């Protein structure tokens, strides 16, 4: 079996390529000519040069592929202009699905995000039935992922088989672009003076890669499946990171009202064009508990997280150290 992975040099794409190779698949990755190969330099994969925004480059990339895993997206939303987020995440998805249909690809797995489910009410868990409930300007990345899912459902109605997966915050090796691993690096450098009052669900990237294949094999077309791990407060997550990297955990947790005030100030500063180390969306979201229920993926896909968060942190930290990333500049807060 041969699969194409768009975004194959990215965090999820590279780990998915490694997992599929372990399972005996032939893997082709779509990448730009300028893409860093650090995350895939040890992998025996085919390379197709192209871009999800260039439809003509997608046809030769899909030749001979039974499956397409569409992982390409702008995930580092806090350091990317909004127009680029929308183009890549929405129009890029439309292009990939259109060419997959044209090339008679048997099945596509779309990598969405827990962000596409919005924010739960206090005391509740996100499930696959939760509608996106934020205005575009509040959280553009989440909006772009929700819109990409809507496009996928149009293609499903037209006969293309597409299964959607919604990973939570992902940690692990090969995170060369520091999508979520930046918190580990900043904790190691003692640059996190205080913690937000909310919480996140955290999952190991190897579990997410395995969940993609389970979705391909067992998922129902048109359905979304949360690929989650452990529901943690930021305090709990920081404590585990601190123990792995050998530094004290930040002692303070800021009140929610302060986080929301900081988010408002950051939004004003961003509107004025001032550079910020942390985006207003991140600050606002970090005051909430973005926790989820993964029972649907367990029941229908047989997916259950196997790697504890502490182990995912350790693997990420060891990869950074082995690749000289532990002393390089990083963004201070992870994406969702």
TrEMBL record:
Single GO molecular function: aldehyde dehydrogenase (NAD+) activity
The protein's matches in InterPro entries, at most eight in alphabetical order, are given as: Epimerase_deHydtase, KR_dom, NAD(P)-bd_dom_sf, NAD(P)-dependent_oxidoreduct
Query: Which Gene3D superfamilies does this UniProt record tie to the protein?
Result: NAD(P)-binding Rossmann-like Domain (3.40.50.720)
Q: List the record's Gene Ontology CC terms alphabetically.
A: cytoplasm
Looking at the record, the residues that make up the Ketoreductase domain are: 4-173
Superkingdom of this entry's organism? Bacteria
SMART domains registered for this protein in UniProt: PKS_KR
What is the recorded name of this protein? Dihydroflavonol-4-reductase
